[in-house]
């Protein structure tokens, strides 16, 4: 709807401004939407496309009493939308170049909810929760490695995607050695043998000398695994500790060569 304020706003410009906007309002539908062909407007009001854009731009900056005007251009059509903001009702449409409505939406603005947030006392839980024991191989391997790190460096294992990928590679390598040695084997037996081999490596790390002894990241162990196993095998042959020899014999079914 045209208001006194809007008419005064338009009257500050040349005559076509008021005539064009009166035509928009007069031809708009009940939802406040006007659409027509741009060439038709240029011919009716004998103005250029540039002048029409100026008229539209000047009109849509005006707001009064909760009314807001918007426009949408295509190559051949123009759409003017009058939005009644104070009622919370906005009617919008999507127009094709032929001027036909393809979609209408009624988007209601809801007033923001006022929430009263009570003061919350945050207490830091310092009690370590015990994790449920998993029967899956990967978490058990991680658990063994974490214990190993705590014993050697007094800190837990640092796991990330790279280290996790390395541990999976270690599992695959150890599993392959078990299969090559034993042939047919059940999944549970395979898991048990791989876990035993991992325990053997970590529990006898003190048998590893030199450069490899300090390489305790999983990615480093994975890369050095054949050399680590070779050192453990050589030390096993020269070690007179019967208990150590018996332990190795139990895992010795795995061919690490």
- Tally of helical segments: 9
The sequence of SSEs as H and E is: HHEHHEEEEEHHHHH
Mean pLDDT: 76
Q: Which strand order spans the largest sheet, edge to edge or round the barrel?
A: 1-4-3-2
Helix content: 40-55%
Main sheet properties: 4 strands, antiparallel
pLDDT under 50 segments (min length 5)?
86-111, 114-126
| Radius of gyration based on Cα positions | 40 Å
Shape type: rod-shaped
Could you tell me the strand content as a percent range?
5-15%
In short:
This protein has 257 residues and is an alpha+beta fold. The protein contains nine helices and six strands, in the order ααβααβββββααααα.
How would you portray this structure in words?
The chain has 257 residues and is of the alpha+beta class. It is 50% helix and 14% strand. It has helices at residues 4-11, 15-27, 38-45, 49-60, 137-153, 161-182, 187-203, 218-238, 242-251, and strands at residues 33-37, 63-64, 67-73, 77-84, 89-95, 101-108. The strands form two sheets. It has a four-stranded antiparallel sheet. Strands 5-6 form a two-stranded antiparallel sheet. The N and C termini lie far apart (90 Å). Mean pLDDT is 76; it is low at 86-111 and 114-126. Helix 6 (161-182) packs across helix 7 (187-203) and helix 6 (161-182) packs parallel to helix 8 (218-238). The protein is rod-shaped.
SSE diagram, text form:
Layout: H1 4-11, H2 15-27, E1 33-37, H3 38-45, H4 49-60, E2 63-64, E3 67-73, E4 77-84, E5 89-95, E6 101-108, H5 137-153, H6 161-182, H7 187-203, H8 218-238, H9 242-251
Antiparallel strand pairs: 1-4, 2-3, 3-4, 5-6
Helix pairs in contact: 2-4, 5-7, 6-7, 6-8
């Amino acid at each position: 709807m045209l208001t006194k304020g809007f008419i005064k706003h338009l009257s500050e410009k040349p005559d076509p401004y008021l005539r064009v906007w009166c035509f928009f309002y007069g031809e708009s539908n009940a939802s406040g939407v006007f659409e027509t062909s741009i060439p038709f407007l240029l011919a009716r009001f004998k103005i250029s496309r540039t002048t029409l854009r100026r008229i539209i731009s000047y009109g849509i900056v005006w707001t009064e009493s909760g009314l807001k005007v918007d426009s949408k251009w295509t190559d051949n059509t123009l759409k003017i939308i009058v939005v009644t903001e104070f009622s919370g009702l906005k009617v919008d449409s999507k127009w094709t170049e032929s001027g036909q409505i393809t979609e209408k939406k009624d988007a209601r603005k809801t007033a923001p909810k006022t929430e009263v947030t009570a003061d919350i006392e945050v207490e830091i839980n310092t009690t370590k929760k015990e994790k449920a024991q998993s029967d899956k191989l990967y978490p058990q391997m991680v658990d063994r490695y974490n214990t190993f790190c705590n014993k050697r460096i007094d800190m837990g294992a640092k796991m990330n995607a790279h280290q996790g990928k390395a541990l999976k590679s270690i599992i695959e390598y150890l599993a392959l050695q078990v299969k090559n040695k034993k042939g047919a084997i059940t999944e549970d037996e395979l898991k048990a043998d791989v876990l035993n081999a991992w325990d053997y490596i970590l529990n006898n790390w003190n048998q590893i000398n030199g450069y490899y002894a300090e390489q305790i990241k999983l990615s480093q162990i994975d890369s050095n695994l054949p050399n680590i196993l070779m050192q453990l095998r050589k030390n096993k042959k020269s070690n007179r500790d019967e208990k150590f020899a018996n332990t190795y014999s139990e895992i010795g079914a795995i061919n690490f060569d």
